[in-house]
Design goal:
The chain is built from twelve helices and nine strands. With 269 residues, it is of the alpha/beta class. The structure holds adenosine-5-diphosphoribose (APR) and zinc ion. The site of adenosine-5-diphosphoribose has 24 residues, from loops.
């Protein structure tokens, strides 16, 4: 496979598209400095998913052994605070502006695709900067950096924060004053907007699968769903092609470089 030809093939397919969709995983934000989950040095290498990926596990660990999670939590706060959308996020916004791409389905909670200017983003695992009231269910989005700064100010104590302090970190519901939590999907909780995301997969003429290991369902079904409905599938991932059974083009590059080159080539079509 000559990479330049694969970039060109992807560009030709996208240039003809009128209703492309993208299904993105943590890899699209890797070049914004946010660690992925399953790569070497990833989140699940530093924290046990059972202790940090489920509500029960998180609450139990923060109550009994906060020191175990706080270093990971503080590092993630720093990376989320410093992160900016990268060329891959902007490339998807450009494809939307060119009338080629309609919808981005993201498994990421970092809000970077919206901040890059995409207008139709389906967040199947929620958004870390949208707070949902545990009592009335209302939710409100907060500016990412302000929110992180506020949390960091409150967690002054380097390694010992009581669970009650953690609860106090979150802003109170502006409607009923009750406790809120980040509106993210933990393991074992209902994934969001699945009908909408499957409809986008079935309706699209091209599916871009970017930066996902394809191990978490139902999001991992989307490229298969798109293929079955007649779409062509383009995979961008420097290490693996989890969708090799349905991909028409595989670009083994990092998302920022690949998407930058693809959009440039689309403009030259
Ligand atoms: N550009 C593109 N892809 C990349 C890059 C990069 N710069 N760096 C890494 N990748 C790829 C990796 O090769 C891997 O296939 O991104 C993928 C990241 O896989 P995961 O870490 O498993 O992340 P993701 O697929 O998004 O996980 C899905 O699992 O833990 C849950 O809720 C969490 O949303 C997450 C879900
Ligand atoms: Zn409320």
């Amino acid at each position: 496979m000559i990479l330049g030809q694969e970039i060109l093939r992807a560009a030709k397919i996208l240039a003809e598209a009128e209703n492309a969709a993208a299904s993105c995983g943590a890899g699209i934000s890797a070049e914004s400095g946010i660690p992925t989950f399953r790569d070497p040095g990833g989140v699940w290498e530093r924290a046990d998913p059972a202790e940090m990926g489920t509500s029960e596990g998180l609450i139990a660990t923060l109550k009994t052994n906060p020191q175990k999670l706080l270093p990971v939590f503080r590092d993630l706060l720093d990376t989320f605070e410093q992160a900016e959308p990268n060329p891959a996020h902007f490339a998807l916004r450009h494809l939307e502006q060119m009338g080629i791409l309609k919808t981005v389905v993201t498994q990421n909670i970092d809000n970077l695709q919206q901040e890059a200017g995409s207008t139709d983003v389906i967040e199947v695992h929620g958004n870390g900067f949208r707070m949902r009231c545990l009592k009335c269910g209302r939710s409100k989005c907060y500016p990412r950096k302000d929110m992180i700064r506020r949390i960091k100010e409150k967690i002054q104590a380097p390694d010992s924060v009581a669970f009650s302090d953690i609860v106090e970190l979150m802003p109170k519901c502006e409607e009923c004053g009750s406790v809120t939590r980040p509106d993210v999907v933990m393991f074992g909780e209902a994934v969001k907007d699945i009908p909408k995301s499957f409809e986008a997969a079935r309706k699209c003429d091209v599916m871009l699968a970017i930066g996902t290991s394809g191990v978490v369902y139902p999001a991992a079904y989307l490229p298969f769903e798109a293929k079955e409905a007649g779409a062509r599938v383009i995979v961008v991932n420097p290490n693996e092609n989890a969708f090799h059974r349905v991909s028409d083009v595989y670009i083994p590059l990092k998302a920022a470089e690949a998407m930058d080159q693809i959009v440039k080539a689309v403009k030259e079509q």
